[in-house]
Amino acid sequence: MSGLDRTVSRIEDYALVGDCETTALVSRGGSIDWLCWPRFDSGACCAALLGRPENGRWLMAPVGTATIKRRYRPDTLILETEFKTDEGVATLIDFMPMRSSDSHVIRLVVGRRGNTAMRTELVLRFDYGLLTPWATRLKDGRHSFIAGPDRVILSSQVPLRGEDLKTVGEFRVRAGQTVSFVLSYCPSFRSLPAPLDAAAALRATTSFWRRWIKQSSAAGEFTDAVRRSLITLKALTYRPTGGILAAATTSLPEQIGGVRNWDYRYCWLRDATFTLQAMINSGFHLEAQQWREWLLRAVAGDPARMQILYGIAGERLLPEWEIPWLPGYQDSAPVRIGNAAAEQLQLDVYGEIMDVFTSRSAGAGSAAGSAVSSAATAPGISMRACCCCRWWVFCGPAIRASAAPSRRSSVI
Q1: Phi and psi (nearest 5°) for 260?
Q2: Cis peptide leading into 240, omega within 30 of 0?
Q3: Segment 81-136, tens digit of pLDDT
Q4: Domain 11-210 listed as CATH 2.70.98.10
Q5: Which of 34, 81, 87, 218 to pair with 315, CA 20 to 30 A apart?
Q6: How far is the C-alpha of 266 from the C-alpha of 42, rounded, in Å?
Q7: CB atoms inside a 10 Å sphere around CB 182
Q8: Domain spans, the chain
Q9: Total Cβ atoms within 10 A of residue 405
């Protein structure tokens, strides 16, 4: 299979890398087809997932055909894709280090055997595949791409050139050699990000994930699968606020060709409580505390008007609109941004909140339980009471009516 021949992969063939503030989706063929910067819910600068390669992607693949194997490095969110060609074997390592200020996607091509011919193709299109950026070469050799408030910087020792509004290059990687590419985001009105040591960033990212997952409790024969799931759930938490996303994408269809394509890059209270229960039962108490604080901020001011979902920082207004220039995944239109479900009333959410507030499962421990349930006594907000009262306002009359004895029944 050639990484250059496939335009869009099956949904299940995408792998996720992220820095707990945004994510990138990488196809089996080595193409980053979805990347939103600087936040999960920002406009995508690589949107080929919902359109065509010209809507933005970053391809890193061998020249010609190759057999492909993939895996995550154990206990990390670092993806390794092995390409085996007639000339040799090379491994593509994709990851996003935790941020100190700027955000980075790092791609390392490591030669394993022989001398493998590789090719890269970067197509950046900001605002969900709409805007072609202003591309320049900086004095230090890096490449700059600007569109309005956004700037992306590409750093690599590989000679790159412009070609049909794309940035392309070819190179070879020998056994034992590593070729690095660093794509960095920063606002266009701020100073340039400093060059990043890719090898040091790989070590730091490995250490972060392994230190984090080390807190998890054992799950017997399913430990490896549980740890992998927990890492994925952690990747979908917004580190600055503690908000928990439902998904990293928008508009992937419920059915190919259908119109039920929604933006899930927001925080559904129901989904978050399920994630939180998994975290608590696995020993992750800090995430429970951070989500509790996020929820208190999100509903602050008027808890009685609690919504079923919020933005990742607690935003209430999430207007829904459609993108006319993207055809959708496998032509499943429309592509939607925002989610009008924020205006819906779904009564079960109150029960889910009350359930997680009173969590005392054996796997959680008293620290986890108190971290969440203490929200009920937070200054100025009685969340548990608010949930109970509002649930009774909507459901109480129906319950009372169903429980009332029939006029035709006799009382003995």
Answers
A1: -85, 75
A2: no
A3: 999 999 999 999 999 999 988 999 999 999 999 999 999 999 999 999 999 999 99
A4: yes
A5: 34
A6: 11
A7: 21
A8: 11-210, 222-402
A9: 8
